[in-house]
Amino acid sequence: MDNFQFNNQRVSQQMFEFDDPFILMMIQKDNLKEIQSLEEKYNIKIQISQGYNQVHILLQNDSVEEHLDQSIVDSIEKHFNNFEKAQKSKITEQYVECNRDFYLKLNKVLQKDHQELQSYHLDFIGNESQQDYEQNKIYQPLVVKSIQIQDKFLIQTCKIEQPEYLNFEEIDVLVLNMTHEGLFLDEFGYELVNSNPGLKQLIKQLKGKISTSNFIEEHVFYQGKKAISLLIQLQEDEYACIANLQVILDKLRDQKYKQIGYLKIYVAIRECCGKQYIEAFSTYIKQAIKKKSYLNFPSEINFIVNQRNENLISQQLDIIKKIELDEKEKFGLLSLFNQKSKKSEKENKMWAEESIQSSLLRIQGKGTEVEEIVKIFKKLQQDYFVKFEIPLNNGTLSEELVNYLKELGIKQTMNIEINEKSVDLYAYKKTINKFLPIIANQIRGSQTMLRIQCQVPPNWSDQRENLKLVDLNLSSPEAMECITAMKKTLPNSKVSRIQRVQNIKLWRNYMYEKQKLIQKGNAKELLLFHGTRANKPELIYNGTEEGFDFRLSAHGMYGRGTYFHEMASYSDGYAYHDGSKKVFFLAQVLVGNYYVGGSSGYVSPPIIPGSNGIRYDSIRSNGCEGQNMFIIYHNSKAYPTYLIDYN
């Protein structure tokens, strides 16, 4: 138990916390008379908050004293310490591997058929990529990285892949990203608003402010009886978003939020936010800790990231770990976990830093009841676990899919065996029913992709290393195709060298994106020119993951993306100068289903009307045939096929 005191020493209320909610529940149940006796003795009121594991001590309304005496607080805490020790001596616990589906099944069976068992507690400790809570599909975020400060304040980056099922009971403050035109800049916001009538109505009411404001201050909407504060970011500049973050964090100081006890803020991260944004956040947290302010209250900030900025934000979040605290504050140095939870010392040993562990079920209670529940658990396993085989067509799976299946098996507590002719699943049948379509689609897609990925283009030269640059004979058909494309708009140019870029990893990433567009129904591909300005071309063709990196681009006419053009003359103005010659790329670009037009605020293509959140694949300028610019917002949707030197 951790002693807790408010900063103001002259208050009429004190509070301390329990690490184990089950022990606190048992104290409230078994020590009711002792608690009432303490209330009468000291003329106080003792309130136990099960939701936050807190014990509050308050003066009775008719007390002649104005403030609590510290000796009374010490006495109450001592009694509760004794209650805790007595309860712990009665309680045993066991851990079994379990997933959420089977946890829910066990809970249901115990409540329906074993009502004689009353002194127990089931605590599901999950690390699952998808979580459905019974029939109402309350969805929890997929945590990418999590940092805990002083065992209370939690900072997380997470992806929310099913915002329409998000549990609003978990949200106190919500920050969304929009443009002045009313468009959402993240699928999270779009899906969330369209699936929530109260939020959707509020957005409609704020339509006028959205078109004229830079930042919309707090407005409240309701999900059932839960009041949720909404803020909207409309700026396109990182520094403006930093200023907004300051406003958001300052709201933690508000008394109404302090009274919540555990404040949860969800902030959707804009594409422009990166290193400086996280550094500013780090500085703010450092100052707040030293002031011993509201961070004494359990609080949580979830940064909602998408596929593009997930790695960037997660890497920058590590900066926060470097916060330096005073000597007397070093007890609160940051600890890194992979899952949000107040864990006991025993649990922490099971959960290594940033590792993937099986989901566990902790069974607490009186010894005989725990033993009985374990027996029921094992009996249910025998009755409800089933085996299912997925046949393999060619007997091989990609390395990425094998790793994915291993990870999924651990997270969902499924036994997944990969044989020569099949993938065998052994798990609770509800879990198999849920994940069978996902696994089957992944296997089909992987086997198709494996054939593609293992085949480099037929014109490539042999290579052992990942990267090879091959000089083309300028009179060869391959080189002449490049020169002909250039001469259309640069008739006086003289090509001195053409190199074919053979980067295996970049090619595989590109083909993976191409396969996804094939599945969507449009994988249109063009050969387009691209100049790198002051950036050396090797920054692109040397890459092992990113290649063309839109994060290195400045905001242009169509936002922050990577720009390509059909005309060499246009890209000539952006070519890299290397002494007496110029250099640019002729690249393969997946334009797919493109949107014509756009705005400077784009960080991704807009959503296709009536498509339930599916976006266009790229943007095309509204030019004449053969004179268009194409913009992509995903690094692997372009491959640097040729590097051309000319003057």
Describe the fold and architecture.
It is built from 19 helices and 28 strands. By secondary structure, the protein is an alpha+beta fold. It folds into four domains: 2-90, Ribosomal Protein S8, Chain: A, domain 1, CATH 3.30.1370; 140-337, Leucine Aminopeptidase, subunit E, domain 1 (3-Layer(aba) Sandwich); 385-453, Ribosomal Protein S8, Chain: A, domain 1; 467-646, Phosphoenolpyruvate Carboxykinase, domain 3 (Alpha-Beta Complex). Strands 10-11-9-12-13-8-7-14 form an eight-stranded mixed sheet, with helices on both faces. Strands 19, 20, 21, 23, 24 and 28 form a six-stranded antiparallel sheet that branches. Strands 1-2-4-3 form a four-stranded antiparallel sheet, covered by helices on one side. A hairpin with a 2-residue loop joins strand 23 and strand 24 (581-590). The chain is globular, with a radius of gyration of 30 Å. Mean pLDDT is 76; it is low at 1-11, 129-137 and 324-356.
